[in-house]
Amino acid sequence: xxxxxxxxxxxxxxxxxxxxxxxxxxxxxxxxxxxxxxxxxxxxxxxxxxxxxxxxxxxxxxxxxxxxxxxxxxxxxxxxxxxxxxxxxxxxxxxxxxxxxxxxxxxxxxxxxxxxxxxxxxxxxxxxxxxxxxxxxxxxxxxxxxxxxxxxxxxxxxxxxxxxxxxxxxxxxxxxxxxxxxxxxxxxxxxxxxxxxxxxxxxxxxxxxxxxxxxxxxxxxxxxxxxxxxxxxxxxxxxxxxxxxxxxxxxxxxxxxxxxxxxxxxxxxxxxxxxxxxxxxxxxxxxxxxxxxxxxxxxxxxxxxxxxxxxxxxx
Length: 315
Prior knowledge:
Blueprint lengths: L2 H6 L3 H13 L2 H8 L3 H15 L4 E4 L2 E4 L1 H25 L9 E6 L7 H12 L4 E6 L6 H7 L4 E5 L8 E8 L1 E6 L3 H5 L3 H6 L1 E5 L9 H8 L5 E6 L5 H6 L4 E5 H5 L7 E5 L7 E7 L7 H17 L8
Parallel strand pairs: 3-4, 3-5, 8-9, 8-10
Antiparallel strand pairs: 1-2, 5-12, 6-12, 7-10, 7-11
Helix pairs in contact: 2-3, 2-4, 2-5, 3-4, 6-13
């Protein structure tokens, strides 16, 4: 079959079905996600197999796995869908109430435990047919590459020095404080810099390669080092760890205030002076003028601003 004849037999729906089947690795799960009947998905997969002259998805044990050809098709098919989504969204202009756009956000959970739930609620309220994908930030994740490739639309987090090759929007600044159990000796006796450095600290795993994290980078600049005895990528679980130990969490006040009433925790001032913890959203120039992306960034900025107005202990 000539290339042009093959191209004429492929439409955008077939590309979406191909990508969904390959990523879900299941015809039944793909049918649910696409809102189709399973026999229709099976028939379309049969057509795709004929067009590709490959099985694309084969059985392995109790599940299904993409073939080598199928694996090669995942990223190109995703790229086609992202390009089509951006093309037609921006041509028509972005109308939240009718948009079926998929927004992809990479975010740390350092900001505020209410931030992502509040953002999801706002997006779904104003753009009820839109889809949201929340991606984590880990040191192994190359968010610059993901932004450049359109795999994510915006990254939200805090950086001592935000990268200068991306567009940036400031969300908020926050005072650095310490969260401890109400039974921690420092609650009764107080502490100085030396006692704070020697205390047992819990710290999150930095979410970009080569970073010590904002707290430890500042300490290094002062020639100081704290005693970190626990590191974890699960930032949302740290308050519970602190509540039942003598661990110290040093982070933004806004995050800590969500936990003090419920978990028997106490906020103490840090005896080491830190600059304010700054939170930003970052995006690539490829989406800078996109109407849908601008709308999403406005939502993020509004939610970040509104979180300051919520009372303590709102969890």
